[in-house]
# Entry
Amino acid sequence: MSKLRFRVKKLIRDKLPQIMRDQGLVVFDRRLDDAAFVAALKDKLVEEALEAQASVEARDLVDELADLSEVMLALAAAAGLTPEDIESRRLAKRAERGGFDERVYNAAVEAETGLPAADYYLVRPIQYPQVE
# Structure
């Protein structure tokens, strides 16, 4: 009988290797050192965010948001932060800059050449490309 092997190369939840083995799969897993773990968590954060973005139904979205929260909390813990640290900063930013209650969407900004506020956008050309 031939075997199929699939490349996964991503961080998975702790109990998944055993669950997969119980299904008859051979799992090639390993434990990550601190630096590799943080890098894998950041990749996982993007993966879960993209899955949340692709969600159509509320039941799918809640699963992806739960996954995002789990990854976020693990990343925070790896950095020595607590959920309270995050919540405190969230509330401070909300007080300073507001939330998303008013659904404000910014299509573009325009600035006179040399305006210091434009530097924020100029140093991020991939995120904020110049348009005509």
